[in-house]
Amino acid sequence: MSKSVFYHAGCPVCISAEHDIIELIGKDNVDIVHFGEDNSRINEAENAGVKSVPALVTPNGNVLHINFGASMEAVKG
Amino acid sequence: MSKSVFYHAGCPVCISAEHDIIELIGKDNVDIVHFGEDNSRINEAENAGVKSVPALVTPNGNVLHINFGASMEAVKG
């Protein structure tokens, strides 16, 4: 099984959700992408269907938008 | 570790998220509560901080609102 990918932008809601996701599914099962550290992956996230962060893209490609930290527009701004 | 609780209301967004959550964390690690089958647990969910469904309440009590299926008001209506 390929990994899930958790996209976030460092906002408090994001960090809280990151901790929860790691606790729930295990840190070996998820790639964490922080747009503040690697904004080159914003396009990848949008192509996957990510509309806001934090969001988890599952191994089968579904997007789970978790709570609401920031829109992708805000992330790019 | 106590289980997570996944609250939903049978909407398409809920069912899709239910499948994803079960795949991600394992069905033995989550209690599934369907308000259409057991509306006595709506109060419990609201007390836990659930504002909309589907939502996952983690073992440490954090609420992860996942995508958006329906508000709790709609669930009660």
Automatic annotation (TrEMBL), chains A, B:
InterPro entries: Thioredoxin-like_sf. SUPFAM superfamilies: Thioredoxin-like. It comes from the Bacteria. This is Thioredoxin family protein. The lineage of its organism: Bacteria, Pseudomonadati, Bacteroidota, Flavobacteriia, Flavobacteriales.
